[in-house]
Amino acid sequence: MSEKNRKLKSKDKNIFSNVPTISDVLLPDVLKENKDYTYLGHNKYSRHFVLTIFPEQTWIGWLDDLFHIGNINISVKIDPTSNGTVINQLTRKLVQHQSQYETYRRQGNITHTPELEKVIADLEELRLLIQTNQDKLYLVTVFITLNAKDLNELNEKTLILESELNKKTSMIRCLIFRQTEGLKNVLPLGDYPIQNYERNMVAGSVASMIPISNPNLSHNDGVFIGRNMFTAAPVYINTFIGPPSLPNPHVFICGTSGGGKSVALKTLTARNVITNGTGAFFIDIEGEYTNLCRQLGGKVIKVRQGESAGINPFELEPDTKGNKEFLNILDKVAEIRALLATICRNYMGRTLNATEITEIEIVVNRLYAEREITSDINSLYTKNGGRLDNGKYVVGRIKKKMPTLSDFQKKLKERENCTELAQLLVPFLKGNSLGIFDCESKITSDEDIVSFDMSEIKDEFTKLYASFVILTWVWQKFVLKNRDKKKIILCDEAWLFLKYQESAEFLVNVARRGRKYNVPLFIGSQFIDEFLNSEERKNNNKYLLNKILIQTITRFC
User: Among the residues of 348-482, which ranges form H helices?
Assistant: First the structure.
């Protein structure tokens, strides 16, 4: 090769040698380290801290307040630990505290024994959780970096940061003469030269250390429920939006007494009715929803002992199977049988026997057969119009009169094997103390907003009886008939219904099937434990909570 060609080849440049790397993007123009701050060029000063004292209890978003300081970086380093090592160390620490406790106990020294009892209990619980793989221990370090345009601003922000953390019973330490190492810890390089400020935490505490709890969470449409506490952005919720955004339309609001559960439920329901024309049915135990129902143009039904409520348990409504409508008399037989079983179990302390179950089905079928009502939907109506009981004339088909509880009791009394059951139903007939539902239905399925006010019922059995009939009637009369219309069933203080198997099963039924019928179940209760503590309904209550979307609405306009 000639000297000339050798010189030309030496001047060739690698076209890929000047491609920027990740380090080129992240590194500042200049790095000058001082005792307690770094200068990064272009009037940018930084001070690096490490969190040394943590609060006794942490909560989700407890670090969020620090972002209001502005131009602040928070880096959380999380390292998992070996379960075997942790268990061994916890065991040694547990033995140490137990030995110390026994020494104090023998000496009669009660000054430190309560504290040691608490420590021993905590260590035993943590060791059990880790041994059973229900929890895990992590080593966590929190690094904080303040950025400012000059030293005065940096010092002011430092005072604010210390004040904010002091209010949370925590403390930071400035990394004196280690500012460069602090900078490396907050950069996304995976390089953590500072290792001596780690704090051991369980999984729940680790989750609270991640400062990402304040993004703008909102649906694109729906009803306005308030503003984001951190960003002041409007928040909308659309319970009917469906998967994948929401797997079901149900809402569960939990809070202490006076915490605003009823206000949240009223606001969410009212705005759905006004904005989307949604139907609403209130199961009102305390009489809190009467004014709201009337303001929305709805109908309030007062349920009182000895007075007709205008609801007939024997009322039939068309059901749908595929694209075909029909009358489901078999389901009505099952409803009446369930109603009588509820009365027997809670009024007499026994269940229906086999003979009574058979006789109930025979009598119910006979009552509809006498009125020539079959599964054909046309059999529910008379062929021609005419005069009604109120004197008005109707053109077209008129719905036939349905059987009532009195008709059923009269037929049952004629059966030889059901005299005791027929006698049991006497207080439930019209004019007697429990004759609330021995009547013709006065509410049509055209009613979109109805409140069932049971505030005047104080007797526990009457409340159970009324709630069972009302809940079943709402499902048959409104949910099944108007399948395409959006409807809300609101049940405040739902724990009262979970006291009884029958009403709890209705809530479970709505939770399972509500999405198919455009029916969200809005539930309010004081404590989630109230849904889980009842052993005989434990499975149903857990299913209910699993199916209901838990939406915590913490702030309203």
Answer: 354-370, 405-414, 419-424, 460-474
What is the chain's percent helix, strand, coil content, to nearest 5?
45, 15, 40
Q: What Å distances lie between residue 305 and 68, 287, 454, 463, 502, CA to CA?
A: 58, 15, 10, 10, 20
Ordered domains of the chain (ranges, CATH): 28-208 (no CATH), 215-304+443-557 (3.40.50.300), 312-441 (no CATH)
- Host H or E run for residue 128: helix 113-131
CA distance linking residue 479 with residue 471, whole number of Å: 11
DSSP 6: H
Phi, psi at residue 25, to the nearest 5°?
A: -75, -40
How is residue 123 written in tokens?
């260590």
Tokens of 274: 């006004």
Rounded alpha-carbon distances, angstroms, from residue 520 to 375, 493, 505: 29, 16, 16
Residue 495 DSSP symbol: G
pLDDT of residue 542: 45
**In terms of DSSP H, where are the helices of 132-260?**
151-167, 179-186, 203-208
% the chain with pLDDT above 70: 86
Tokens 């219309």 -> residue: 485
The residue written with tokens 């005069």 in the block is: 387
User: Chain centroid to CA 515: how far?
Assistant: 16
- With beta carbons less than 8 A apart as the criterion, state whether 520 and 249 touch: yes
CB 126 within 8 A of CB 135: yes
Q: Are 365 and 357 in contact (CB under 8 A)?
A: no
- pTM over 0.90, yes/no: no
Instruction: Compute the distance between CA of residue 155 and CA of residue 333 in angstroms, rounded to an integer.
Output: 79
Q: What pLDDT does residue 545 have?
A: 47
444 backbone dihedrals φ, ψ, rounded to 5°: -95, 165
Measured between its terminal Cα atoms, the distance across the chain in Å is 84
Q: What does each C-alpha distance from 485 to 206, 208, 509, 516 come to in angstroms?
A: 45, 41, 19, 11
Give the three-class secondary structure for 105.
helix
Q: How far apart are CA 494 and CA 282, in angstroms?
A: 12
Tokens of 456: 């005047």
| Residue closest to 525 by CA, chosen among 547, 495, 555, 504 | 495
Give the single-character DSSP code of 476.
Answer: I
Q: Is the dihedral of CA 241, 245, 249, 250 positive or negative?
A: negative
Average pLDDT over residues 217-237: 78
**Is pLDDT of 554 > 50?**
no
Q: Residue 393: which of 384, 383, 381, 403 has the closest Cα? A: 384
- Best-predicted range by mean pLDDT (148-162, 229-243, 387-401): 148-162
DSSP state of 119: H
Report the C-alpha gap between 556 and 243 in whole angstroms. Answer: 26
Q: State the Cα–Cα distance between residues 267 and 143, nearest whole angstrom.
A: 42
